[in-house]
Write a structure and sequence with these properties.
By secondary structure, the protein is mainly α. The chain contains ten helices and no strands. The protein has one domain.
Amino acid sequence: MDQFDLRLLVGALAVLVGGATKGITGIGLPVVATPILAILYDLPTAIAVVILPTVFTDAALLYRFRDQWREARRLIPIIPPALVGIVIGTQILVRVDQQLLKIVLGSAVLLFVIMSWFQVVPRLGDRFARRWGPGMGLAAGILQGASGTSAPVVTMFFFQVNLAKAPFLFLINAFFFLVDTGQVASLFSVGIYTPRLFLFSGAIACLALPVLFMTLQLQDRISDQQFRKAVLLVLTLTGVVLVVNS
């Protein structure tokens, strides 16, 4: 098997694992697949390949938890600065070396996970979300544009708001759907997408969606506490991969 075939195989496996993680925890496709593909290819290509199937998986989970639509009001102060952040982050992606960003982001994620496991991080409420939401949105948008995923920041933010599993999953996937769609448009605007790369990304989506639907059944069988631990495990994997890859 030549190097090109091996890269395709590893990339496909990364997307399958990411799709399974997304089905169980509601996050995970870009945080698992993008760092691995960034090792095989360059970071802009990895982001362009993963972001399109991520949009489809976001939409699937958003539809699954559509009865939580009233929670969408929490996103009103967050989304506009996030979309501005994507434009800034995309410019960083095409102009700046990513290694320092990966180290900082990975270290912050691992610090948050350690604090959460030992219950050092307090569970805050709506006042916290209203006060810090716009700043989180801007930071998440910048990281989305620059690294291909806002999940660590968004997950850490909504972990501080005392939400049950269903509204938590609705909110983060509503946020993901909006910013991921915005990033697809932003990648087209700077010329990263080519017709061949776009078709390859569509093929990757065909791999991710069936795995997502199969693993969604597991999501219903775990408690809120088990779900929280699963999300923390995904964040741990993300932080380790980001630091090691840098």
